[in-house]
Amino acid sequence: MPSQVRSGSDQGGESCNYFDSRTTTSGPTPDEALKSPFQESDVVDNVSEVEEPPEPPEPPYHVLTRRQKWFVIVIIGSAGLFSGLSSNIYFPSLEAISQDLHVSLEMVSLTITSYLIIQGISPLFWGSISDALGRRPIYMASFAVYIIANIGLSFSPNFAVLMVFRGLQAAGSASTVSIGNGVIQDISPPSERGEFIAFYQAIRNFSIAVGPVLGGLLANFLGFRSIFVFLLILSSIVTTVIVVFLPETMRSIAGNGSLRLGGVYKPLIRYLTKEADGTEDPEGPFTRNEVTLATFVEPLRLLVQRDILVNLMFGGVVYTVWSMVTSSTTGLFKKHFHLSELQIGLAFLPNGFGTIVGSAIAGKLMTRDYLEIEETYKSAHNLAETEKLTAKNMPVDFPIERARLRRLPWIILIFVVSTGGYGVCLNFPSVTSLTGWIAVPLALQFLIAATSNAVFALNQTLVTDLCPGKGASATAINNLVRCGLGAIGVAFIESFIASTGPAVTFLALALITVAVGPLAVVHWYWGQEWRAQRVQRRDDGDDGKTTA
């Protein structure tokens, strides 16, 4: 007897499990497939009046309901908090660390540069393994590293220990971003992906808003080591949630979520409730993909693809400028406005809220733009309105590049003007000494953060679209480019400001952004052609190791 499809909303009082996804042998009708995941759905059993049974509908991209997908996004977003939180919670305590460990402020600033470098490199390791072995085991392994690092930092007696465990902390936390983007690609088709990635980035960026405030409070009242105790407790809670609730989503392992899994791939809640994980048995015994040197080299191959490279470089420059604005805030605001550590922490709030607002707006715009272009494409090619375009069946002539980049010009215009104006408004002591003038650079920081993070959302979503099946690796290589360029910028920003002043420094950064603008123009006009050529090479067997 066929079992009934159960969505996240039709379980009633029987179960509160978020991942009860039982499929059917008969499947939903096309009309039912269009219903909201929050509506009741009935299985039609009587088809005797139909002379010929209709063709079975395509299986869903993923069996999770929309509500269940959002639950997964919240979990991986909470995990992704630690990459930004570990970095930004640290900024207000730099001077306290300098005094406590008896080293110069310049030496302490080196921990920021080293953190960015390791943050850029480590996802190549973790992300590549997660694309081979699955998401759950790598989440647990990376958080184990992160927890160990925070234990060491909580007792750091000298600068050397701080430097070593700070690097280990970066290695454990940075990978959560790339793995999370891999999860989003696993569970969502392109039509949903923009909204999910933007929300995922927004929930992670929440740490940028609250991190400096928390760091200032903890450093002021409990000492800088209390920051790492706080991170230790918080990361332990999130790790527990991952172990208990997060399902394995890697499509080569779990398919569309309908395969029964065991061992580390099965959430602990399934063992406790003794519920089956999925409805279908894998074909044949499960074997893990072999991890070799090629596993770690594979993401680097993406850099030889022209469309991917120009996208990464443009996003990397914008990230570098934003990082230089953020990392120089402590020194500039302490000099011009004479703020305490706690007040400096509060001064980071506009920057943090800007990251959230920018990501959220970008997500809404990307979803709207994609649906509009998808509708136009279907109409021009006489495709059924109900047909869904996924990464698996997306035609090479579908303009995914323009669906993601069409809002970029006005976003970059605001970013460039705000960056140049930010430096000018901090350049003249006679102006910065005016009562209330601090509101001007703070407002500009909000605009810089909002527009830069809107660019990041567009940039990351497009990179993910261009690398189907390699979500974690694509994010890892994106992270490598961003953090590599960002580390260089952060290492020299203080010297630039000291030698030329904030006006010249940030005007120059604004002009650099304008100078790399043609990269986005090139991608707009030739990206689709390059993507089609890559797919053709793959189909011909000449580019078998390169993601299409």
What order do the helices and strands come in, and which of them pair?
Layout: H1 30-33, H2 66-88, H3 94-101, H4 105-133, H5 135-154, H6 159-173, H7 175-187, H8 190-222, H9 225-245, H10 251-254, H11 268-273, H12 293-301, H13 306-327, H14 329-337, H15 341-347, H16 349-380, H17 400-405, H18 408-425, H19 429-432, H20 439-466, H21 471-500, H22 502-515, H23 517-539
Helix pairs in contact: 2-7, 2-8, 2-9, 3-4, 4-5, 4-6, 4-7, 4-12, 4-21, 5-6, 5-7, 5-9, 7-8, 7-21, 8-15, 8-16, 8-20, 13-20, 13-21, 13-22, 13-23, 16-20, 18-20, 18-22, 20-21, 21-22
Membrane topology: Multi-pass membrane protein
InterPro entries: MFS, MFS_dom, MFS_trans_sf
Domain Major facilitator superfamily (MFS) profile: 72-528
Morphology call = globular
CATH class: Mainly Alpha
**Contiguous runs where pLDDT drops below 50 for at least 5 residues:** 1-16, 21-27, 30-45, 543-548
> What is the structural class?
mainly alpha
Q: How many independent structural domains?
A: 1
- Count every beta strand, where a strand is a DSSP E run of 2 or more residues: 0
CATH fold descriptor? Growth Hormone, Chain: A
**Annotation field: number of helices:** 23
What is the annotated CATH architecture?
Up-down Bundle
What is the terminal separation in angstroms?
42 Å
Q: What is the oligomer described by this structure? A: single chain
Biggest beta-sheet profile: none
- Average pLDDT figure: 82
**CATH homolog superfamily:** MFS general substrate transporter like domains
Region (Disordered): 1-61
GO molecular function, one term: citrate transmembrane transporter activity
Biased composition (Polar residues): 1-28
Keywords: Glycoprotein, Membrane, Transmembrane, Transmembrane helix, Transport
